[in-house]
Amino acid sequence: MIALLVNPKSPQTEGVIRDVQETARAMRVQLQILKAATESEIDAAFASFVQRAPEGLVVMADVFFINQGEQIQGMLTRHAIPAISPWREWVEAGALIAYGPSLTAAFRQAAIYVGKILNDAKPADLPVQQPTTFELVVNLNTAKALGITVPPSILARADAVIE
Predict the structure, then answer these.
(1) Distance (Å, rounded) from C-alpha 89 to C-alpha 70?
(2) What is the pLDDT of residues 39-93, one digit of tens each?
(3) Overall number of domains in the chain
(4) 61: nearest Cα among 10, 122, 127, 113
(5) 67 lies in the same domain as 90
């Protein structure tokens, strides 16, 4: 059984839940949805989650969870739960795997837009940008601590491996 941690206040939540449920069904994996929009709701979600002997946690990309990273990381470590998140920084702090858009590339693109706007470009005239650079980061220290062997094929594809 794995769980998906989502923020019920986010407009993307329904779509994320639908996509992950579809994938879990296809892989014949039991999925528990954890909803949290406050610190205390994160505590409650983990309390119910750890009682079910979880095999892993997927964290939805959401600003609230970025801000609560220390709280979530602490619970993952305390309960020895492998997690995948969209943020490289979480893996550097102890999560198992991150796969998501490169924040460095996104900030670089944002800076380019700021420069264009400062040079009198109208924001409405600038095209909407989608991420084009994605990162796969693996923390082998965490894998070892959790007793997990990361397949060589994943390590070969990783943009960064933390040892």
Answers:
(1) 11
(2) 999 999 999 888 888 899 999 999 899 899 889 989 998 899 999 999 888 898 8
(3) 2
(4) 10
(5) no
